[in-house]
């Protein structure tokens, strides 16, 4: 694990910070500061990026910090879970282009970062761009003193419905966990359908999934929702059988019934029955979403930290709207990713529900609120996140806590599962 002082020039790419950095607001939240600490609205065209830093913070996240010469700081969350170090390296390469540039030319930077290297796409590049894009939008909002959703056309809602996770990788003890989330005010939960599943699921495995969902429905009643995540662990044949059995329990949606490399066969699952199909956490651009939308999925789930950031996800949402599909951003990640997601959904008409990671089974060393100065933006009331007018992404990052956590870092990896015969199993 790389220490904070190892390779410092790489970690703090673009260390050509100007003298104006001496007067900067460390949290980057109080607007534009002059050398004398007074607010100014002059010189927007002269603002330049002076430094980009990355921070590996537990439990499995990567944050980036983009600093400008007039004191505004933007934060982003560029990460592929289990490959954070690789994304960090990609951010450092992309930072070579960004340092010295005007941070407000967000779309131009997005075009160059995604296409300027000739080779395009994939989770690592798209996630690196995503975090930087979030940070640039954060800067833009802070520069103008408004939340990002105001820059995206303004709010279309005052609160956004969120769901809570229950059950872990191999779901157990569901009734008590769901009851606790209901008591906390949530109106929807999501759980994995199953843990390790045989290549062709047995009758017993299918029935176990149905029994879990039936338990959830009994606890939730008919006025709350259950979403079921297959996590790409099922074959198309097994998913078809499962969907037929789940239909009477009316799940909000069933997610990733097949792995993403099999998205070309999703149409058959969509047409097999009435259960809404969702997918998208492992799709990284509009072109990828076009295929699944043409297949008829009801819900798209781009991740703001994987699918090119705010700039691309807002376009994915618009594309989905033309197919009558809804947006439910994937976000089992940290506070910056969730903040970026909420800025998009507050300005998106065809929004369904937002994932969030408070209490999720991955968050052991730290949780969603661990790196925030003010936790109020993520105080969920009646299962909703409420819109605020805080500038930028709408959260204040605890920079001292982030820097301290980066000293320890993390080496999170997803488990590798095997079937009983020793063959690889989807996690």
Overall 3D form: globular
Mean pLDDT, nearest integer?
90
* Largest sheet features: 9 strands, mixed
Strand content: 5-15%
Order of helices and strands: HEEEEHHHHEHEHEHEHEHEHEHEEHEE
Which value, in Å, is the CA radius of gyration?
A: 21 Å
What does this protein structure show overall?
- The protein is an alpha/beta fold and 427 residues long.
- Helix content is 34%, strand content 14%.
- The protein is built from 13 helices and 15 strands.
- The chain has helices spanning 8-11, 84-98, 106-115, 123-144, 148-151, 174-183, 203-220, 236-246, 266-270, 286-295, 309-322, 335-345, 399-408, and strands at 12-13, 49-57, 61-68, 73-76, 159-165, 188-192, 225-229, 254-255, 277-279, 299-300, 326-327, 354-355, 384-386, 417-418, 424-425.
- The strands form three sheets. Strands 5, 6, 7, 8, 9, 10, 11, 12 and 13 form a nine-stranded mixed beta sheet that branches. A four-stranded antiparallel beta sheet has the order 1-2-3-4.
- Helix 11 links the parallel strand 10 and strand 11.
- Helix 2 packs across helix 4 and helix 4 packs across helix 11 (309-322).
């Amino acid at each position: 694990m790389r220490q904070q002082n190892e390779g410092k020039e790489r970690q703090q790419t673009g260390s050509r910070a100007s003298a104006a950095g001496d007067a900067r607001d460390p949290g980057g939240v109080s607007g534009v500061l002059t050398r004398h600490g007074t607010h100014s609205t002059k010189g927007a065209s002269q603002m330049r990026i002076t430094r980009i830093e990355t921070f590996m913070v537990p439990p499995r996240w990567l944050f980036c910090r983009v600093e400008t010469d007039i004191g505004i700081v933007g934060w982003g969350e560029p990460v592929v879970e289990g490959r954070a170090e690789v994304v960090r390296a990609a951010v450092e390469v992309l930072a070579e282009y960004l340092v010295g540039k005007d941070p407000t030319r967000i779309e131009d930077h997005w075009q160059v970062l995604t296409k300027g290297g000739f080779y395009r796409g994939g989770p690592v590049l798209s996630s690196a761009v995503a975090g930087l894009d979030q940070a640039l939008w954060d800067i833009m909002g802070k520069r103008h003193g408004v939340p990002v959703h105001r820059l995206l056309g303004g709010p279309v809602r005052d609160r956004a419905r969120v769901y809570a996770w229950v059950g872990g990788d191999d779901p157990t003890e569901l009734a008590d966990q769901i009851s606790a989330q209901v008591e906390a005010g949530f109106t929807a939960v999501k759980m994995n359908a199953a843990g390790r599943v045989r290549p062709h699921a047995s009758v017993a495995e299918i029935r176990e999934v149905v029994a879990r969902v039936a338990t959830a429905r009994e606890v939730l009643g008919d006025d709350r929702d259950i979403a079921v995540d297959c996590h790409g662990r099922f074959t198309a044949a097994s998913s078809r059988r499962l969907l037929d059995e789940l239909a009477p329990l009316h799940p909000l949606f069933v997610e990733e019934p097949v792995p993403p490399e099999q998205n070309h066969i999703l149409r058959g699952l969509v047409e097999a029955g009435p259960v809404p199909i969702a997918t998208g956490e492992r799709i990284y651009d509009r072109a990828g979403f076009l295929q699944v939308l043409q297949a008829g999925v009801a819900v798209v789930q781009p991740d703001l930290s994987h699918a090119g950031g705010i700039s691309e996800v807002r376009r994915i949402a618009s594309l989905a709207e033309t197919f009558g599909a809804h947006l439910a951003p994937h976000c089992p990640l940290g506070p910056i990713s969730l903040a970026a997601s909420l800025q998009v959904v507050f300005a998106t008409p065809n929004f369904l529900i937002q994932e969030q990671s408070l209490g999720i089974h991955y968050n052991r060393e730290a949780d969603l609120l661990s790196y925030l100065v003010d936790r109020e933006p993520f105080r969920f009331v009646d299962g909703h996140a409420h819109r605020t007018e805080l500038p930028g992404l709408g959260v204040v990052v605890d920079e001292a806590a982030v820097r301290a956590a980066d000293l320890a870092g993390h080496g999170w990896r997803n488990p590798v599962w095997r079937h009983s015969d020793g063959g690889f199993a989807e996690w």
